[in-house]
Design a protein that fits this description.
Elements: H1 4-9, H2 11-20, H3 27-63, H4 67-103, E1 123-124, H5 142-149, E2 152-153, H6 154-161, E3 167-168, H7 170-189, E4 194-195, E5 201-202, H8 204-209, E6 221-223, E7 227-229, H9 234-238, E8 245-247, E9 253-262, E10 281-291, H10 296-313, E11 318-322, E12 334-342, E13 347-356, H11 360-365, E14 368-370, E15 376-379, E16 381-389, H12 390-400, E17 408-409, E18 423-424
Parallel strand pairs: 4-9, 8-14
Antiparallel strand pairs: 1-11, 2-3, 5-7, 6-7, 9-10, 10-16, 11-12, 12-13, 13-16, 14-15, 17-18
């Protein structure tokens, strides 16, 4: 969310940023609306000052026994008191209109983000590919493998909850748990993230803070009248600093959590309807960093390396893409996507998205920082990334570690979490 003052001072840069996202200019309209709001504030202040001055003059007039002057002043004060509520209501309406308009405007891209309108404009980072594509010309997809093993049941899930759900059983359920535990251990023990067990039900203002609301309400699951189910642990983790001032000595804050996530997938009709790639409920390990503005670029690269590391240790082939301006998420100013190779699909698929949101979310959350000299600075910078999506990691392990019999070899890094098991195969 943008500061109207910043837009006034940087109108051309603001509109250029929106243009890079394929959006029309907004600066002139926002500035005009803000000027109307500010004019009302000036008028209100003048009336309030005049009311206060006139109230004092009434006392002076009465002391001097000038009833005519006192009566005239009291009439003036009465008229001002009648006028102020209408102006306050107009101010409130203009502020709501301005805030609603600002809340619907996405973050503008960083200068080094490539231009482009969709995923075709994304650019591969040549220095961030890992491994080689495995030679699996006849690879099965994960759902074919899971169903053949009798450990992945979509029909049972449909009876319970409908489409886009799955029931995992036995060793596949344990493998999913092992992957999540492995990710958390690496991120906490080697990258210094603090593990958090956050609520998965959050209030409206929390979803607003990370920009899921109001624009993307249809993509979320409402839980009663008071709560939303989180679409990612980014939401509660980032909001841990909402409405607070964080000391510079505490920054950067690094949080990680493994939670169930819930998404309505309202815009994904007909996409990935088979299997586990796109579900209403899934498990994800999330990474969140809170930093000073000076730290955020380096922290973005560090977060990317943490997400890459867990995939490297699983021996999975992946590449990193820098998203173009037209393909980034609403709150992001720069995003890296990690795409893992799925031989069953013969394609790369996103498994992690690491974004630097700058001060965009912090303004919505009213989260600031205090420098070492005690001065309260502006908004913190927030970053988030998948570290990584557990369900998609399970898919990648299954498809990349399958053999001709349909058995799944367990990567070395996961065997300690599987009680030493080296292979998942169908029981005879």
């Amino acid at each position: 969310m943008f500061d109207p003052k910043w837009i006034r001072d940087n109108a051309d840069a603001f509109d250029r940023g929106l243009k890079r996202r394929g959006l029309p200019p907004e600066a002139a309209g926002i500035i005009a609306l803000d000027e109307k709001r500010r004019a009302i504030i000036v008028k209100l202040q003048a009336l309030q000052e005049r009311r206060n001055a006139a109230s004092k003059d009434i006392g002076v007039a009465k002391k001097n026994k000038d009833e005519a002057a006192a009566n005239a002043l009291m009439a003036e004060v009465a008229k001002i008191k009648e006028d102020i509520p209408a102006l306050e209501a107009e101010q409130a309406a203009l502020e709501k209109e301005l805030n609603d308009r600002l809340a619907g405007i996405p973050n503008t891209p960083a200068d080094d983000v490539p231009d482009g309108t969709d995923e075709k404009g994304n650019v591969e980072r040549k220095d961030h590919a890992f491994g080689k594509k495995p030679n699996t010309n006849s690879a099965n997809q994960h759902f074919e493998l899971g169903e053949a093993l009798g450990l992945m049941d979509f029909e049972a899930a449909a009876k319970l909850s409908g489409s886009r759900f799955v029931v995992l059983k036995g060793q596949l359920a344990r493998l999913e748990r092992a992957i999540s535990q492995f990710f958390l251990d690496v991120h906490t023990e080697e990258f210094g993230y603090i593990e958090v067990a956050p609520p998965v039900l959050v209030r409206d203002e929390v979803m607003f803070g990370t920009a899921q609301l109001p624009k993307f309400a249809n993509d979320q699951f409402r839980a009663g009248n008071e709560f939303w189910l989180i679409p990612t642990a980014e939401v509660p983790l980032t909001n841990l600093v909402r409405e607070s001032i964080v000391a510079e000595e505490e920054l950067p804050l690094r949080y990680t959590a493994c939670t169930p996530c819930f998404r309505a997938e309202a815009g994904a009709a007909g996409k990935d309807t088979r299997g586990m790639l796109r579900q209403h409920q899934f498990i994800k390990v999330e990474l969140v960093s809170i930093t000073t503005p000076e730290q955020s670029k380096d922290e973005h690269e560090r977060m990317l390396s943490a997400a890459e590391e867990v995939l490297k240790r699983l021996g999975l082939h992946f590449r990193v893409m820098t998203l173009c301006a037209g393909d980034m998420g609403f709150a992001s100013q720069k995003t890296y996507d990690i795409e893992v190779w799925l031989p069953g699909q013969n394609a790369f698929r996103e498994i992690s998205s690491c974004s630097n949101c700058g001060e965009f979310q912090a303004r919505r959350m009213e989260a600031r920082w205090r420098s070492k000299d005690g001065k309260v600075k502006g908004p913190v910078h927030t970053l988030n990334g998948s570290g990584v999506a557990v369900g998609r990691a399970l898919i990648a392990v299954m498809e990349n570690y399958q053999d001709e019999s349909g058995a799944i070899a367990i990567p070395d890094a996961l065997q300690p979490y599987m009680g030493g098991l080296k292979k998942i195969e169908k029981k005879s």
